[in-house]
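Thread: Newbie trying to understand structure tokens

Hi all, I'm a second-year student working on a class project, and my supervisor (Dr. K.) asked me to get a predicted structure for one chain before our next meeting. I've only ever worked with sequences, so writing a 3D structure as a token string is new to me. If someone could post the tokens and maybe explain what I'm looking at, I'd be very grateful. Here's the chain:
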Amino acid sequence: MTIKRLDHVSVVVDDLTPAIAFFTVLGMTIEGKASVDGSWADQVNGLKGVQADIVMMRTPDGHGRLELTKFRNPKLIEIEPAIAPPNTMGLRSVMFTVESVDDTVARLRESGAELIGEVVQYEDTYRLCYMRGPAGIIVALAEELT
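---
Reply by user tm_fold:
Sure, no problem. This is what the structure looks like when written as tokens:
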């Protein structure tokens, strides 16, 4: 076996404050904060002069982690289109199982998130939806029905 576990997913954002607020509303907590720079950061990123701030968020069950990264240097590069549709190549979404899709959607909307499409039911198993979160990331929500 080559993989021990999925450690975390990283999201690059232009502003940490609203990103932290978004994932806090979702139910995550801050595990730690750090600033990174130096030759190791340059080497691992394949960039020069890396200066970044990182906030690690943890899911309530303690198993899932999400890294929020704000690059101070070099400047951010935006993708085109900035708000990519769900069928864009690359990382599609990060899915969270929630107690109530309706309650979670309402709370996230209050913090500025947008519902993509509609809340739907998949067979008798899940209620599902996609929300647009910080930095345009798609956050999928799933409510188990059984």
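A couple of things are worth pointing out once you decode it. The CA atoms of residues 121 and 127 lie 4 Å apart. The radius of gyration is 16 Å. Feel free to ask follow-ups in this thread.
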